[in-house]
Write a structure and sequence with these properties.
This protein has 27 helices and 23 strands. It is an alpha/beta fold and 745 residues long. The structure holds phosphoenolpyruvate and magnesium ion.
């Protein structure tokens, strides 16, 4: 066969483009394309296999194989040579296909007479769409040139598929099937809406270009701009070691000569500059996905990011691709920072992330906004298109993309049931959480953003039992100023309309790292230099925060509490900082609060055994159950594997809580519990049974907790727990559940 010239390639691509430009049915287009390719490549066979679902490929068009096999022949991912190309995303080129490992004979196609086989993936930025195959009778391996040419053709097919060129007539295009994702719960609740991609992909509408010289000029200019922008980023002063290392890798890629040369070669074969970037991006992805090394795979994201930047430069499409946000948007993203999420705010109906963790800042913000959040929904950013219908089940971590009618209907039933329950809870809003035997439990809410405050009145919370001040620090990119904080805290107090707000001073370290502070490389940050430890060692920020709180109060009562107090001495020091600031404010002539209560968070078991003097001195104690539980059981709260291993209703843990209640009692020290468990009805019941009379939780939990407390006899619940203990059980849960089942509404 004669050597393929670049102009052959360009000619073929132009003919393919003409096919696309002519109005026709999807199937007819595919048929003409296989014919054109076989003709141009001088092979007897050309076939196109497309994904039917994530696991199955289907022969969708062929020139040379038996027509009857079209839409009949199917294979699983990894099955046969076609399946292998699809799975690996890498080409297979062989002179003797039947001798090749994994070959599978499909009798209905009549392919047994064709010896040589070249299959390349039809993929777009690592998204596998199908496989393009050419075969011929003569036993010969295809040349490099032919392989390059067919890969370029596959790229054009990928773009056409993406644009929906082959849809219709039972030929389902991509992004049309229903898809289900199993992730994990980030925030409970159910939502129905339309996909809004945080980073929509750039749309390439012109995969084929007529004039390679113009395209080469364009790509060179764009790469030039990219290089300058990466160099500029590297010049920025505020980079830490890790950011620098990432950007150095970017620079290496951006300046790579091989990268640009390969893209230029593809342009010579007829691709537009944009399609050449995408092709290179897709190939690099497929290669790197085979790499087991986590570090290298992380670099894959860098390369992706760089290619995306290049595409944006080329197409002039910024992050905003011009799409209109739907009315009921569900945000879909790989990951998102807290500030960005906050910017979207309450207009989002739900959030689905590929990454993230329960304790991540995005999760905290989603909770504050009361938006259902599913994390770890792997692959969803690739599968979704802006505007796709989507159902988010934050309770189970399940997401339905483009659901069929039956699924959507039953999902709506679930939403309706939840709305019904909400109505029931709303009717309890003004009523106290008093049990049948007359014990009243105060229910407060946790907050951290201004956005939380509207829930205070709506939920019926008696106050804010925990205001996490670090969120304001986390969502900024520089340290907030005192005046800024004072204004914000004053607004929080205004919004609380006289209800108490317990401001917790900055709790950073552990999982909460301020973007503008040098991260500490600690072997175990949860037990490291965090919270009050930072505050006492570097009191500048602590004092600034205390001043802001005192000014915000401006004569109103103030509650301040310090996180992660592990021993009495730490509390004494924190308290004297507070008293000193009050004194200073007074001497400056500022109005000081009408009253001030200074409290400690009990988050380490040690504090339960502090001297009596501690319980006497502290105005109140709030049990940070999230941390306390992780240290009580030595089970990392961020580690999915161990997080749920130990039950909150474990009788040792309940006994420990009872001990804290007993330590507070003689001194009348007010005690509350503000970890996540306070918002779970059964857990809340157990906490109340152990003697806690103030619980602080997410606003959405107040209704369900109140409803349960109001229908039980707390003395009986306590007897059930005691009985379980006497019986030697590990946890009180089964006994409590069984007892609850016998209680009426
Ligand atoms: C806790 O530890 O229970 C708590 C309320 O604080 P945070 O979750 O912010 O650590
Ligand atoms: Mg804590």
């Amino acid at each position: 066969m004669a050597e393929r010239s670049e102009s052959d390639s360009r000619k073929l691509l132009r003919r393919l483009r003409d096919v696309l430009a002519t109005p026709a049915k999807g199937q007819d287009r595919l048929d003409s394309i296989t014919h054109l390719i076989a003709d141009s490549m001088q092979t007897e066979v050309c076939s196109i296999y497309l994904f039917r679902d994530a696991e199955t490929l289907e022969l969708c068009a062929t020139q040379g194989l038996k027509k009857a096999a079209v839409h009949k022949t199917r294979m699983k991912l990894g099955e046969g040579l076609v399946g292998r190309v699809a799975r690996t995303g890498l080409p297979v080129n062989t002179a003797d296909a039947p001798a090749e490992k994994g070959f599978r004979f499909m009798p209905e196609t009549g392919e047994e007479i064709f010896s040589s086989f070249l299959g390349v993936p039809i993929q777009r930025v690592g998204e596998k769409l199908g496989v393009l195959v050419v075969q011929s009778k003569a036993a010969r391996a295809f040349s490099e040139d032919e392989m390059d040419a067919i890969e370029v053709v596959a790229m054009v097919l990928a773009e056409m598929t993406e644009l929906g060129a082959f849809a219709g007539d039972g030929m389902s295009a991509l992004h049309r099937h229903p898809a289900l994702f199993r992730g994990a719960t980030g925030q409970e609740g159910a939502a129905e809406g339309r996909v809004w991609l945080h980073e929509p992909r750039v749309v390439v509408t012109n995969p084929v270009a007529d004039d390679p010289l113009t395209e080469i000029d364009r790509i060179r200019a764009a790469v030039g701009v990219l290089r300058v922008s990466v160099d500029d980023l590297l010049e920025a002063e505020s980079l830490d070691k890790d950011q620098k290392a990432v950007l150095e890798a970017y620079r290496m890629f951006a300046h790579s000569r091989g990268w640009l040369r390969r893209m230029e070669d593809d342009i010579q074969r007829g691709l537009s500059a944009e399609a050449a970037v995408e092709k290179e991006q897709g190939t690099a992805r497929a290669r790197l996905e085979q790499v087991p090394d986590a570090y290298l795979r992380e670099r894959l994201h860098d390369l992706d990011d760089l290619s995306n930047r290049l595409l944006r430069i080329l197409t002039g499409q910024g992050k905003d691709t011009g799409a209109e946000m739907p009315d009921n948007p569900v945000l879909v993203a790989r990951n998102i920072g807290p500030a960005e999420l906050l910017e979207y705010g309450r207009k989002l109906k739900g959030v689905v992330l590929e990454e993230g963790s329960v304790g991540s800042h995005a999760a905290i913000v989603a909770r504050a906004l009361a938006i259902p959040l599913v994390i770890h929904a792997k692959g969803i950013t690739q599968e979704s298109l802006n505007g796709n219908a989507i159902l988010v089940d934050g309770d189970t971590g399940i997401v339905h993309l483009r659901p069929d009618d039956a699924v959507a209907r039953s999902f709506r039933d679930k939403i309706a049931m939840q709305a019904e329950a909400q109505k029931r809870y709303a009717s309890l809003r003004e009523l106290p959480a008093t049990t049948r035997d007359g014990a009243t439990v105060e229910l407060h809410m946790n907050a951290g953003l201004m956005a939380d405050l509207p829930s205070l009145l709506g939920s019926g919370a008696e106050g804010v039992g925990l205001f996490r001040t670090e969120l304001q620090f986390l969502i900024r990119n520089k340290m907030p100023q005192r005046a800024e904080l004072a204004t914000l805290y004053a607004r929080v107090m205004d919004a609380a309309k006289g209800k108490p707000v317990a401001f917790r001073t900055l709790d950073i370290g552990s999982d909460k790292v301020l973007p503008y502070m040098k991260p500490n490389d600690e072997p175990n940050p949860a037990m490291g230099w965090r919270a009050i430890r930072v505050g006492l060692d570097k009191p500048g920020v602590l004092r600034m925060q205390l001043q802001a709180l005192l000014r915000a109060a401006n004569g109103r009562p103030l509650q301040v509490m310090f996180p992660f107090i592990a021993e009495f001495g730490e509390f004494q020091m924190a308290r004297s900082h507070t008293l000193r600031e009050i004194h200073r404010e007074k001497s400056l002539g500022h109005t000081i609060p009408a009253s001030i209560e200074i409290g400690a968070m009990l988050e380490t078991p040690s504090l339960a055994y502090a001297p009596d003097a501690f319980f006497q001195l502290t105005d109140f104690i709030s049990i940070g159950g999230n941390d306390l539980k992780q240290f009580f059981f030595a089970a990392d709260r961020e580690n999915e594997r161990v997080r749920k291993r130990y039950d909150t209703l474990n009788l040792s843990f309940l006994a420990f809580l009872e001990l804290v209640v007993a330590r507070c009692a003689p001194f009348g020290t007010k005690l509350s519990f503000c970890g996540e468990d306070a918002g779970r009805p059964i857990e809340a019941l157990a906490l109340a049974a152990m003697g806690l009379r103030r619980l602080s939780m997410r606003p959405a939990s107040i209704g369900p907790v109140k409803a349960l407390l109001r229908r039980v006899n707390l003395g009986q619940a306590r007897a059930v727990i005691d009985h379980a203990r006497a019986e030697g059980h590990e946890t009180a849960r089964p006994a409590l559940m069984e007892w609850l089942a016998t209680q009426g509404d």
